[in-house]
Amino acid sequence: MLQFLYDLANWQYFGIFAIIWLVVDLVWIGRWRDLLSRINKLITKPWVFKKDDDPKNPKLYPRELLENLAQRNVITRAAPEPTTDSPIVLRLKKWFTEVGDRIFKEGSPLRALGYILALAFFIFFLFADAVTIANTLVLMGLVSPDLPSLLQRLDLAILGGALLAAVVGVWILIEMSGKGELIETEELTDAQKKMFKGLSVLVTLFAVVVMIALAVQRLISLGMLAASPTTDLILSFVLYGLLAINSSFAAAITYQPAALGMLVLIYLLIGLLVSILPALTFLFDLLWRFVYVVIDVTLWALLTPIIAIPYVIGKIFHWI
User: Fold this and answer.
1) Domain limits for position 176
2) Is there a domain that residue 228 lies in?
């Protein structure tokens, strides 16, 4: 296609052909008058923040859709129209409102922050667990040692299973004891709180064991402590087994608030989208009008001489 256009542009009679084509375009006055009329109607239409009296003209211009998107968040003095939403939409709105009331509960402004922190910890623990498991599989010869660079970061896995796990264990223990303000615990039963407390204590103890193992490994590396098969076995179990177990437990105790943290992020993203939706709609309206004019002018210029042939024949034989 590009070669054809290139050859056409370099044709020796292309200039004469283009002039004849343009003359036909301009001679058919009715066609370009209709073109100018359509362009004038499109350009002179009010902005999408105002209601258009003739939204279906010109065709292929989604005026009603753009108006609904742009004016949904514009404050007006008009009385609110009765809702026409379907029962499913109403139920979704009710559910969304109830979830929003839970994660943005009055009197607990810090809980949304706590849920986001829990989500960040949860993702990091899953990553640390994946790194530890991938390196263990490499040692077992089950996978290739050519792991992605991200899965080779055993230092981050140790950071998650040791220091961060200890921080999260103490944090969840405080929250389940009723002394914290970052996680909702009122809806949990006493049995659930005891389970979370037990897991929090276990995660904290495992984190301490991992940090002790790291200290022993450092002493061996510095030559201040002699290595032995028993020591190597214990250190291997702690750094490749207990580390992954602790990351899994830490992810488990942060799962519930992490799920609410995901809802918090969804709410924030929706709020951001809703706040900038009128501006985006305004820009899209400008772009749509420009593209519409360009396409309309291009089709008029290219198709008018082609349509002129059957039109003239129809006029001669009185078919039109």
Assistant:
1) 88-277
2) yes
